[in-house]
Amino acid sequence: MSGKIFIALFSGINVGGNRIVKMAELRSFFEDLGFSDVASYVQSGNVVFRAGKGDAATLTKQIETAFAKKWGFHSRIMVRDLNWFERLVRQNPYPEAAADHTKLHAYALEREPTVDEVARLAEKCTGPERFEVKGDVLYLHAPNGLGKSVFANLIGRVLKVPGTARNWRSVLALLEMAGQAGKN
Predict the structure, then answer these.
(1) Measured between alpha carbons, how far is 178 from 160 in angstroms, rounded to an integer?
(2) All structural domains of the chain with their residue ranges
(3) Of the candidates 146, 159, 40, which has an alpha carbon nearest to the alpha carbon of residue 108?
(4) Is the predicted pLDDT of residue 5 greater than 70, yes or no?
(5) Reduced to 3 states, what is the DSSP secondary structure of residue 177?
């Protein structure tokens, strides 16, 4: 089967009992759009798929538009390819935190933040969290967990670059799923 493996990361679905999308329906939706090797991971909306043509930006627009039409609301979607995920894991600046999946998160950002945007965010990071931005990825080490992190709640507002976060377990699971799909 030719084509390239991509991962779609949805934001704002199945959170707090709102905007419910069943994963089986989401998988069918991707198949109806003509994608193959479709697999989903957990309820927050992560889909691994193979596309015969198109790049991440084109696929993002196509999927976002079709999704809004089908479900009646907009979900911001980040589509990334397998190489992007491999690089994300390889470049993790906090390898010592990777063992505790709940303390390490990666944010897929819509674009690379500017130096000024990152500096503004750094001013707000007074501990115990640490973060680093590499390209269009923000790595966050939150030693007390994301749920208790005041800083984590500020990231979107201060950085002003749309993104969606995944904990390290999800990152590794998606990379493994994408890698397996790539071997088929």
Answers:
(1) 29
(2) 4-85+172-183, 88-167
(3) 159
(4) yes
(5) helix
Give the Cα separation of 129 and 92 in Å (integer).
Answer: 15
Percent of the chain with pLDDT strictly greater than 70: 96
Alpha carbon distance 123, 125 (integer Å): 6
CA angle 46, 76, 71 (to 5 degrees): 80
Domain 4-85+172-183 class, CATH top level: alpha beta
> Which residue reads 């390889």 in tokens?
90
Chain segment 42-81, per-residue pLDDT in tens: 877 899 999 999 999 999 999 999 999 999 988 889 999 9
Token duo for residue 121: 């965010």
Using DSSP's 3-state secondary structure scheme, residue 14 falls into coil
Average pLDDT over residues 25-40: 96
Asked if residue 90 has pLDDT above 60, the reply is yes
Question: Token digits for 141?
Answer: 């080490």
| One-letter amino acid of 183 | K
Identical topology for domains 4-85+172-183 and 88-167: yes
Half-sphere exposure of 73 (CA within 13 A, CB side): 10
Q: What is the CATH number of domain 88-167?
A: 3.30.70
